Amino acid sequence: MINKNGWCNVINTVFKATVRSVLIGYLIVLLLIPIGSIYFKGFSLGWEPFWQEVTGPLAWKSILLTIKLSVVSTIIQAIVGTIIAYVLVRYTFRGKSILNSMVDLPFSLPTSVAGLMFLTLLGPSSPLGVWLDHAGIKLLYNQTAIVIGLVFVTFPFVIRTVQPLLEQIDPAEEQASFTLGASRFYSFCRIVFPAVLPGILAGSMLAFSRSLAEFGAISLISGNLPGKTMVASVYIYGETQNYNPEGAAAISLVLLTLSLLILWIINVLTRGKGRLA
């Protein structure tokens, strides 16, 4: 006969097994099966058709363009995001709480709305757009527009991964450095930067991975010119509209593999360093 403690152990074991089964089922249904279907569809016709789809002139140019502009936007985010995070943590000023809450706006704003926002702001009928046009500056329907869109949608990543690490650094360490005659820049490079570097790397790679998949804003402001401003996500959409699911799956597979590789690298970099966000 099972005593009270025995029943508690049985219930606890059943509960843990149930929670574990639900979690595994959730991962299988919402992650593993969709990911597996992309790999299956991409290679459904064999290796040679897959390679032909990926190395096609327009497809390959769209992949290279996506990677190139994602790298540019990621570098911008690594620098600007670190500076903004430092200001939000170390300085007190009027409107700081509003600015801090606005950082997460790109997370909650649909990317198509972001694209429309830039069209409205920089379009030829807007005052700013007219002024830029007269100055000979074009910020729409070119690669610059793509970088602007990518910087906007990935804005929070570096900031939110660096902030917690900055908050863990005792300001007294920097103050001691100032007391000994070190400049603010030198103190930042020797004390702050090494401590926040894992956050910068992790946030930058998350921003890069997000940039690879961006569609909504880019499709509205890039012009979608094949071989010039057509990124991979727009190319994939075009292939689905042209009834070529295998071609769309092949390019999707390349982006998916890159994203999975980036997530693995992030996991390696942050292992043993605690949560960054």
UniProtKB/TrEMBL annotation:
Keywords: Membrane, Sulfate transport, Transmembrane, Transmembrane helix, Transport. InterPro entries: CysT_permease, MetI-like, MetI-like_sf, Sulph_transpt2. Residues 63-266 form the ABC transmembrane type-1 domain. It is a multi-pass membrane protein. Its main location: membrane. The chain crosses the membrane at residues 23-42, 63-89, 109-132, 139-159, 185-208, 249-269. NCBIfam families: 3a0106s02, permease_CysT. Belongs to the binding-protein-dependent transport system permease family. CysTW subfamily. The complex is composed of two ATP-binding proteins (CysA), two transmembrane proteins (CysT and CysW) and a solute-binding protein (CysP). This is Sulfate transport system permease protein CysT. The lineage of its organism: Bacteria, Bacillati, Bacillota, Bacilli, Bacillales.
